[in-house]
Amino acid sequence: MKNIAVIGAGTMGNGIAHTFAQCNFNVHLIDISNESLEKGIATIAKNLDRMVAKDKISETDKKATLKNISTFTSLKEGVKNVDLVVEAATENVNLKLSIFKELDENCDEQTILATNTSSISITQIGAATKRPDKVIGMHFMNPVPVMKLVEIISGYSTSNMVLETITNLSKKIHKIPVAVNDYPGFVANRILMPMINESIETLYNNVAGVEEIDTVMKLGMAHPMGPLQLADFIGLDVCLSILNVLYDGFKNPKYAPCPLLVNMVTAGKLGVKSGEGFYDYSSSKKAEKVAEMFIK
Hints:
The protein has 13 helices and eight strands. The protein is of the alpha/beta class.
């Protein structure tokens, strides 16, 4: 397995492309617009520069990584002759089903189709294709180049051979794969999102302020980042989407999104990417500081 296609040049997509390219895979980064692709490549270059500055990699490594990435606005062209596709589009079930139908039609028969979904059923996504045995979840953590964990999720029809292949591949890109079962939110977000939601409820109920809540969790629970700041970093719209998947999947009120979260997303206050969430990121230095926390 040498040629990898990544669908989506956003935060997760460019991080996945960066990781594979740095490990000397040929990467096809695919998005619908050249502007998105240029922004994605610029982010990769900036993150590589940070790694060079911290003596994690050399300037030669940086150039080789960027050289390993080709960009495409045509999905059909971008997935030609690839061994694996990793979809990293918006956490929207209808969008993902549409993408996987298109991938199934345009990819070689032996190509494995992976999704970076953080909550949506792999079985459902696989059922949208004629190759459900070759559909699997690869849930990377953000920021991808730094975080070691990859949740590996098999759908009902995913073959053991595909599971073994993706597990071994994850190790080759210096990640630690953990196999989990196909239930809403898997492990990471089934546990994390209720905590974030309860933190928002705590703010909503005026028990404490934003910084106070985050400080209690950082100093009292040894979390590197408070849950509200983490929600900003993930994206409040993403948090809302995941909570909706959990709520729809389990029909349990404990997963119902807090009204404050719903209102903030409706108002366009999405966190770091919009410039404002629970914290103000209007200053580029503040946004940069959040990113720097992970480049250690």
